[in-house]
């Protein structure tokens, strides 16, 4: 139960609402798609065909074999980079295709 007698920010209210609904997962997926270029750089973003987030697993699709290989070798680094960017655990696994 939310205690409204104390100061309560709009940001905290939205976070609480998202935590209690299915929208948080969808919003996280949209955020990663929107911020992909900022996180990974223009070249990687340009050759990424799609991104999906499901149960903290990020599925990255690319048709460029050398890029897929490079991403595969750097999965842990990418996970850390994304989680650091959002300052929370957004993903804990990466699947490439």
**CATH fold-level topology of the domain at 31-96:** GMP Synthetase, Chain A, domain 3
Strand content: 5-15%
**Which parts are unreliable, with pLDDT below 50 for 5 consecutive residues or more?**
none
According to CATH, what is the class of the domain at 31-96? Alpha Beta
Mean pLDDT: 84
Largest sheet: 3 strands, mixed
- What structural class do the secondary elements suggest? alpha+beta
How large is the count of helical segments?
Answer: 5
N/C terminus separation: 43 Å
Rg, alpha carbons: 16 Å
* Helix-strand topology string: HHHEEHHE
Number of strands: 3
Share of helix among residues?
55-70%
List the main descriptive attributes of the protein structure presented here.
GMP Synthetase, Chain A, domain 3, about 100 residues, 5 helices, single chain, alpha+beta
Short structural description:
The chain has 97 residues and is α+β, with helices and mostly antiparallel strands. The chain is 56% helix and 14% strand.
Structural description of this entry:
- There is one protein chain.
- The protein is of the alpha+beta class.
- It has a domain at 31-96: GMP Synthetase, Chain A, domain 3 (2-Layer Sandwich), CATH 3.30.300.
- The chain is 56% helix and 14% strand.
- The protein is built from five helices and three strands.
- The model has no long low-confidence stretch (mean pLDDT 84).
